[in-house]
Amino acid sequence: MDLAGITNEPRLAAEDRVFAYLADNFTYDTAVAIANRVEFLLAARWEHRQETLRESGYEGTVFEISTVEMAQSHYRFRDTRPGTSNSHGEQNVIDLLTEFPADQAWWITHKVRDQIEGSGRVYCRAKQPIASEVRPNNAQPVGHLH
Hints:
The chain is mainly alpha-helical. Helices cover 60% and strands 0% of the residues.
């Protein structure tokens, strides 16, 4: 995929903001649930838009969503336990991404969800802290998510 037409800096900064928002405000389970639900919503929007662009012969640079990625996002959405997400958190994540085109908004949530799930419980503050969830005061977000 040629990404020459996509500016990385704003997107990477948005990934950091979304990750920090979820990690600083929610338990691990809630952060994962929010990320799963928002990723699926944005994936569905982007999938529809992507098909419209394909049909019109668009040749610009985009983050393509594959049928496999769409199916995986659907399964994660479907398997999210009822009551584990937070609707205000979901809306806040969506609001953090309004400046981005549909493909980049989906890609950001896709990468953030990967990072949250990959971090285990290390970066998410729990309402009832578990030793592995406590983050030292000088800890920084994982960094740019690629």
